[in-house]
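Reply to dn_fold:

You asked what the input looked like. This is it:
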Amino acid sequence: MFGDAMINMTAGMILGMAVCPIMMKAIRNVRQNMRVNRILREISDTQKTS
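and this is what came back:
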């Protein structure tokens, strides 16, 4: 029983370490995309008012 728990914990750690960089990259891309969209929207609004 203890051996199964150790195997599961080890597998979870390995899976987490493998997925974490991919997840962080995806989050960074989403944040950057939101930031660029906000800037472009502000530029569009200022051009409409001008």
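The chain has a mean pLDDT of 94.
Hope that clears it up.
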